[in-house]
Design goal:
By secondary structure, this protein is of the alpha+beta class. The protein has seven helices and eleven strands. It has helices at about 5-20, 55-70, 85-90, 135-145, 155-170, 215-230, 245-250, and strands at about 25, 35, 45, 75-80, 95-105, 125-130, 170-180, 185-195, 200-205, 235-240, 255-265. The strands form two sheets. The protein has an eight-stranded mixed sheet, sandwiched between helices. A three-stranded antiparallel sheet has the order 1-2-3, sandwiched between helices. The protein is globular, with a radius of gyration of 19 Å. The two termini are about 35 Å apart.
Length: about 280
Amino acid sequence: MDIRAIAQLEESRLATGCAEISEAVLPIASGGVACRGTPGAWNNLAVGLGMNGPVAREEIESIVQFYEQAGIEPRIEVCPLADFSVIRHCEALNFRVRDFDNVLHRPVSASERVVPAQSPLTDISVRIVNKQDDAEVRRFSRIAMTGSKPPENDFPESDYALWARIVKHPRTESFIASVHDNTGVHDAGAGSLELHGEIACLFGLTTLADFRRKGVQQTLIAARLNHAGTRGVRVATIGSRPGAGTERNVRRMGFQTAYTKVMLARPGPGLIPNR
């Protein structure tokens, strides 16, 4: 599968999935969507723009209005294979580069049994979260949010509600990895997988600080790839900030960069950016 085909599948998957778990959605006539959640939430973003051809300036202006009327900083993720009209209009409307995100890919096959690139330093088991068990869903959500934040960080209920919608989504499976040692069994990491036709996306991967460098992350990567292989998926993707630990780990397990997206934002007085 070539890069353009992967980009079409991945950007379409992201646009569809994000719209399905967001509180408000603005469909864009030329393709793509603008999604809106609570101020500061990650799902305040417009995706999939320009993948079907040129985008009108009025469409970008409507996205700006959609966010600013809710006090949210407009944010647009742009695929490098999108029509250049997206960049041109964003530049004219004073958007700024906020960040970059690598989309990496790897073929998936039912005939391949994926294993961690390095043997785990301890016994690790992986379980799929029961979507009907609200306590387990909340446990997963807490791990997913805590991995990149201080342990004492207090999360708003809106963040838990967003993760619950993600975990319970019909195309999503979520996984918890537990470390076994002489003091017992400890939930140590978490990650999700969205299945969307021929493509699957690994996301939400995190390891709690006390259990890093033990093989938890690679174990979760392997478990999700093997699960996807049983579902007829041809290619798996994962997003990572360039140079981050996630990128280093997935490269060791066969992923390669497909393309790099640019994150554009339009700051303004009183507008709340994504956390």
